[in-house]
Input
Amino acid sequence: MRNNPILLVNVENLPPEGLERQGYVSAEELEFPADERFSLAREVHVDLFISCVKKGILCQGRINAQLSCTCDRCLTSYHSAVALSDICHLFEDFAEDILDLTYAVREDILLAVPQHNLCSTSCRGLCPMCGQNLNEHDCGCSRSSGETPDVWRALDQLDFSE
Output
């Protein structure tokens, strides 16, 4: 669904002084991947300046996105802002008259997504015994008595004989 004029640049008609593109792009237009850990919460704001240089087309600018994430520790949903203020792409080889910036903008956002999604740095996660979200309140299971869970117990029950 690459039809957003903000991300499409007619290279043949690029003015010598450059071209400024500003506006909003949806997740569908960016072909943003479906992921259970994060997604785009709303449209992405792009502010780009495209200019012709000796070796090709230079695209510089800013991207602001709002992600809807799932915390890796407690599995709750939260929003995280992604603000990229210094993106820069040089496009040297392109065979078409229209330069599509969709891939570059999408990859910039994906590279800014943290490897570990945490709702807060002090997130306590889930109790390994009962699954209670420890950020909401402590649980009353044996975990609080210092007993550690036997996480390998399920593997002991596997039967490999056939």
